[in-house]
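[Meeting: bench + compute handoff]

Bench side (C.D.) handed over the final construct sequence. Compute side (W.E.) agreed to return the predicted structure before the next meeting so the bench team could plan truncations. Sequence as handed over:
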Amino acid sequence: MTFRKKINILLISSSSALGGGTKHMFMLGENLKNEFGIFYAIPKNEYFLEFLNPKNSIDIHERKIKLTDIFNLIKFVKVNSIDIIHAHGKGAGGISRILKLFINRPLIYTFHGIHLECHNWSYRLAYIIYEYLLGWIDSKKILVSQSENNYAKKSKIFLGNKSLIINNGVRNMTIKNYSEKDFDNKSFLASNKTNVISVCRFVQQKNIYEIIRIAIELPNINFYIIGDGPLWHQLKNFIDIKILKNVILLGSKRNVFRYLYEADIYLSTSLYEGLPLSIIEAMSIGLPIVASNVAGNCDTIIHGKSGFYYDLSDINKAVGYLTKLSKNKLLKQKLGKAAFQRQREFFSRQKMLSKYKKLYNEIFIF
C-alpha cells in the first residue's frame, strides 16, 4: 500500500504589517498545518516570529520584487517539494506570478481588497492592464467577499473563469455579557461611559481622521483605537492639538478580545475593505457595528438588524447611530446578538477552512 504525502503549500505575503491579509495567512497556516505541509515567505517581522523557523520559512523584501528573492524562492520551492503557491495581496501576487514562470506549480491568488478609486487614472489603467497581461497565470483567484467580487467585475479586472469567493472567517467566541464591564477581573476600558472601539492599521485606507471627527461631536463617549502604522505620530499630534480627552490610542495589542469584551460598539470608517477581520471578530462576541457603507464592510452586517451603515463623510449620520445605540441598551444587545448569529452563519473560521481544504486538494497536481 502506498501513502500519499502531505500536500506542501507555500503561503506568500510581501507585507510584514499586522494587517488583515497577514493575519488571514497565518490563520490558514496554523489551522491547516496538521493536514498540509505549511511554509511561509514573508519579510522579517516581529509579529509572527512564533510561527516561523528556518525550516518552514524564507525572508523576502518588504513590498518589493527583487531578483534575489525570486532566485531564493525557486530554490526554496524545489528543496521543500512545494506543491501549491498561495499568494496573499498584490505584492505577493506579482512575486508569485514571476515565480510560476520558472516553476510549474498551481498558483492561488487572494486579492485581500481591491479599490482603484483611491488612485489616479494612470495607476488604475496600469493595474487593469497588468491583471489582463498576467492574470492568466493564476490557477485560481480568491475574492474574500461578494462585494469584492462585484467591484473586480465592475472595474474590468480580469477574472476569467478562475475566480472563487471564500468569505473570510474568524474563531467563534463566547457572546459578550452586557451586564459585566469587567473581563478576567481586570478593567482595560473606562466603565462609566459608552466605549466605542476600532481596530485597524494607521494607514490612509482606514480613514481614521473620520473617527476623530465623529468623536469631536460625541464628547461623552470614549473612542478607543487599537493598532499601529505610518500615521500613528501624525494622528497622535492631531489629537493632542485638539485636546481630545475621549480619543485614546492604545497601540498594537496581541489579544484584542480583552478590549472588545469591554467595549459597547464597534466602529469602522474604512474607505474600502476586502472583508474586514476586525469587524467580524467584533461580531463574533456580539458587538453591534457602525460601519462605512463601502466594499467589504457592506458584506458584514445587515443594516438596522445587526448594526448600522453610514455613507462616508456623513458624520451626522454616524453620530446619530452611535448616540442611538449608546442610549438604548436593549437595542444594543438586540443588534449585538444578531451580529453574533450572523458571524456564525457566514463568517466562521471552520467554514472558511473547509473551503480552503477542498480547494487545495482539488488543485493539487499529482
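W.E. noted at the follow-up: The chain has two domains: 8-169+348-363, 194-346. C.D. will use this when planning the next construct.
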